Amino acid sequence: MSKLFNNNFLTDIYGISDIIKSNDYKLKDIGDTSKQFTANLLDIKSVSQNNKSVATGDSTVNNIVSNSKPSDSTVNNIVSNSKPSDSTVNNIVSNSQSSDSTVNRSVIASTNDMVNKSIGVPPLQVLELLRKEIENCSKCRLSASRTNVVFGDGNVFAKLMFIGEGPGADEDQAGLPFIGRAGQLLTKMIIAMGFKKEDVYIANIVKCRPPNNRNPFEDETACCISYLHKQIATINPDYIITLGSIATKYLLNTNEGISSLRGRWQSLNLPHLSDKEYQVMPTFHPAYLLRSPTKKVFVWQDLQLVMKEMGLPVK
Fold first, then answer.
1. Domain count, the chain
2. What is the pLDDT of residues 136-179, one digit of tens each?
């Protein structure tokens, strides 16, 4: 049995070496994780040596990933303090004395318009406006008990996006998704695919923690799902992995169980926001894997399907 990343991957990450041996399930090396190899996997093209990471709120965009070099105007506009020229952006109310409801309506109208790629507003700017909109949100009962909104985190140009169900206690305190035990396992899953955590984008169906980590109610997800749709259309990933039954159910609007859906490609369309058909791979939630380690082999199979579709080496 080969090792991955020069340590016992099967034990350290999945803890299923005995299960895999008994089923004669063989995994081969997925290769060196050097910077050059990572660059080859992700097809990262550097914008320029002078470009700096843009830090906003809780997340930092470290590696701008694009299949083509952005124009100078696109790069320059990423800096949030630069004055936007687009009339839609100019209409955003930030320092006015308007009432909260007026400000909120202005932000909502702006983000709805700016998600449309034809306007040309940088994704980071759109996402920051969307974050502000969510921070002012009180549509459902979850807003009353939250410590922080957990908006999302990662590369705004990511080709791969992970979507979970909602924040837990650790995430609620930090305002960042997947940082607890389940998040640590998710990070290992991402690395196993050949990525770094900062190469992908991670978000949730709901942006506020449900009390006692219960599943979000249907009316709560209904209030929040439009925010996620805007995130997806703005980031515009090529592939999405849904983590668990809740994320899969509400993103795909299905009642089919996760055990049946996992490992099978699904399609997501957001016709009001994007012309793109997003490819979605449902799989089990990392928290479920912590409770049921024997299911981890199935998740690895699902991740390999995504890797193959993305053109990454699967050995």
1. 1
2. 999 999 999 999 999 999 999 999 999 999 999 999 999 999 99
Terminal alpha carbon distance of the chain: 13
Query: What's the length of the chain?
Result: 315
Query: Which of helix, strand or coil describes residue 203?
Result: strand
Find residue 266's DSSP bridge partners: 280
Q: Which two tokens stand for residue 26?
A: 């063989």
Count of CB atoms situated within 10 Å of the CB of 70: 18
pLDDT in tens, 71-97: 444 333 433 333 333 433 333 333 333
Task: Give the position of tokens 């936007």.
Answer: 84
Q: Alpha-carbon distance 225 to 162, whole Å?
A: 15
Report the run of H or E that residue 278 belongs to, with start and end: strand 277-283
Instruction: Confirm whether 315 is domain-assigned.
Output: no
Tell me the pTM. Answer: 0.68
* Residue 168, both tokens: 């837990």
Q: Which H or E element spans position 288?
A: helix 286-291
Please give the residue range of the domain that contains residue 276.
Answer: 31-71+148-309
H-assigned helices in 115-166: 123-135, 142-145
